[in-house]
Amino acid sequence: MGSTMKFSVSRGRQFLQYVLPAVMRPLRVLWNQIIGFVFVVLAVWALPRCVESAREFDGQAGSFFRLALSALFVVIMAAFGIYSFLKARKAAKS
């Protein structure tokens, strides 16, 4: 009975060594694409406020701060989104 258990465990370990990498790669690609989509949606969602802040800009410190903060948020979210899509593409090729 002990040898049967060892055989079963070694076969299970061998199965996981072959199957797990084949399952993890598509999951990693999908995860990066979903995260990239969320970041791009956040950037697009904040874009109208950024444009509105640019139109309302009057040279004062408060309006400059609103514009800078809005633009920084849009740029960071878009950059994270693009980076996630590039990372997904790289993971899909490897």
Write the SSE topology.
Blueprint: H1 2-55, H2 61-93
Helix pairs in contact: 1-2
Can you characterise this structure?
This protein has 94 residues and is an all-alpha fold. It has helices at 2-55, 61-93. Helix 1 (2-55) runs antiparallel to helix 2 (61-93). The two termini are 42 Å apart.
Note the beta-strand portion. Answer: under 5%
Helical percentage: over 70%
Oligomeric assembly: single chain
Biggest sheet features:
none
Encode the helix/strand succession as letters.
HH
Please name the defining characteristics of this protein.
94 residues, mainly alpha, 2 helices, rod-shaped
Describe the structure concisely for a colleague.
93% of the residues lie in helices and 0% in strands. The chain contains 2 helices and no strands.
